Amino acid sequence: MSLAPRAVLVHRTTEYEELLARHGTAGQAGFFLSSRGRSLAGVAARHALARRTLAETAAAVPLSWRQARVERRDLDRFLFGPEDVVVVVGADGLVANTAKYLTGQPVVGVDPEPGRGLGVLVRHRAADTARLLAAAVSPDVLCDELTMVEAVADDTQVLRALNEIYLGAPGHQTARYRLGTTAPAHGGEGRREDAGGDTEEAQASSGVLVGTGTGSTGWLGSLWRDRGSGLTLPAPAAPGLVWFVREAWPSPATGTSLVEGTLGGNEQLRLVVESDRLVVFGDGVESDALELTWGQTVRVGLADLRLRLVI
Predict the structure, then answer these.
(1) Which of left, alpha, beta for 77 (phi over 0: left; psi -120 to 50: alpha)?
(2) Which of 119, 144, 193, 242 shows the greatest Cβ crowding within 10 Å of its Cβ?
């Protein structure tokens, strides 16, 4: 006997709730904000809108379906099932935070504050929920299948992300490592050709970013613009990635030749740790990171899984 579909509503704590948790009462929270030139009224209004949208979305779930809710900070402990339809009620970033824990479940993005964000991933209103849930379980459901990036460590740890993966030192301090690409290149100062013909360079930098076309609307896009890079950023559904090294430092032992590039197909970026500790995290969630130590290797490339975003 097959299980009924389950709608999993993903949301996050509002700024108003965080203020109350920190200051105890609305009056104390209001005093804190007023001392910084802000008003509690606007924060409370956004909280009310977010909670109203969440309630309206939940009410649209068919009575024959099962239903669950999960807060952003609990995503790494929540078990998603194959029959789930994931409904993200929040900003674009909340979809990215959720994507890394999914294995092909359809995702519906509901925007509680239309016009405040870009609406790249949360494209719908709460009033559309019933229609979208019915479409999500239809055999001919229409989805945008968005490319994801994946990091695999030599100890079998795996991490996926929708926007970008960061590899570097905790706190974004100087990271030391050897960086390799699958694209052949000529040797030079601080770099060598390995046995497989790939190029490798010893580097000291504030970290490496590897991201997707979806990530081009965020951190990756900011870095691309600031650098004035000549690389072409991929489209969100394109089978390609771009990578950038942040603030590579030249020295007799470290080079700055491999600082950006693209990856496609089976191409991978390979990083060998030469620091006591490096972290690998996705989409800005440093609390859920892979930890690597001296001598470990991590490879980053296209993930086999994609985010299925219901149109």
Answers:
(1) alpha
(2) 242
